[in-house]
């Protein structure tokens, strides 16, 4: 993570100078804004060379962070000093990047930094949701409770992510395998039959001619097709990387007949669970909405949540902008409205999250049950059709010889 030397200004107009690690200038500006500091200038400091800068191993998974958080919670609750907790967790950590991050946090805490401030220096591992909740825990003296809530939240987020992966990855994987099998048949198997038919000098039926034509096309233009597909994927990823492209793609995904309702349920579950966890931890409502928007995973949902945040800044309730966005179901909006009026918004959000997480599990299960036989049938029909098409001339020839 790059280090920046920055110049800022606080609310009193005083100049602030310092150094901070951040993913980017935008991330630095956002982090300083939460501390009520306006970023005026930032320059990235070039790291020196040397083997010590080389890092091995991937970033820790959500499961690694959930286990770390759960263990941290137990030790804090048992009265183990903060620095000793960090040292024990560092020793038991297998992931090298995570181990180095914990060591850095320990060093910063020993130097006098708060735990949240130390964690903010490792934003790729401890995101804004995590550090804001730790800040609230340190402020309220309930760090053990905060870590318990965080571990529950991360575990449920991991479960929800697995559901999303099951819904999305399985059909894509089956389609890719099917495309690979069909391409291999057209590229390697069909040409052998083509040579046989040419030597036999027989009239070929239409299905066989179509398959042979497809085989010749793959043989002649296969490399160009692969390059074209690669360029299409690159172009799509580049387009999706733009704000307008991401919004348009996410908007169309929400409108798709099968996956749209499922993605909407996932968005509602993620939004309500994140909001409930942050509110319960004492994070201010405006910060809750800003963090929740950044974790929404869908540009349309993110825009709707930021619209809610803007409306609350203007003194309105949370219900009206949620309803106006058209993203959230009416039942969800009504329940949030009841929770807001009764002063039990956290409880209501938790109940909605529990309900929609169960809905996601059920929807994914139903989708997998329906898609498995459908994909087997489609794959069987396509591959079987190719095989039958190649044997039709042989059947015709055998019939003529038997007469």
Describe the structure.
It contains 15 helices and three strands. It is mainly alpha-helical and 403 residues long. It folds into three domains: 3-45; 62-155, Receptor-associated Protein, CATH 1.20.81.30; 156-403, Up-down Bundle (Receptor-associated Protein). β1 (3-10) and β2 (15-21) form a beta hairpin. α10 (259-280) packs antiparallel against α15. The longest helix is centred in the middle third of the chain and has 58 residues, at 143-200.
Integer-rounded radius of gyration: 28 Å
Portion of residues in helices? over 70%
What is the β-strand count? 3
Could you state the CATH homologous superfamily of the largest domain? Type II secretion system (T2SS), domain F
- Secondary-structure element order, N to C: EEHEHHHHHHHHHHHHHH
Alpha-beta content class? mainly alpha
Write a concise keyword list for the protein shown above.
403 residues, mainly alpha, Receptor-associated Protein, three-stranded antiparallel β-sheet, 3 strands
Give the topology.
Blueprint: E1 3-10, E2 15-21, H1 25-34, E3 37-45, H2 62-77, H3 82-91, H4 96-110, H5 115-120, H6 128-140, H7 143-200, H8 206-240, H9 243-255, H10 259-280, H11 285-294, H12 299-313, H13 319-325, H14 330-342, H15 345-402
Antiparallel strand pairs: 1-2, 1-3
Helix pairs in contact: 2-3, 2-7, 3-4, 6-7, 7-8, 7-10, 7-15, 8-15, 9-10, 10-11, 10-15, 11-12, 12-13, 14-15
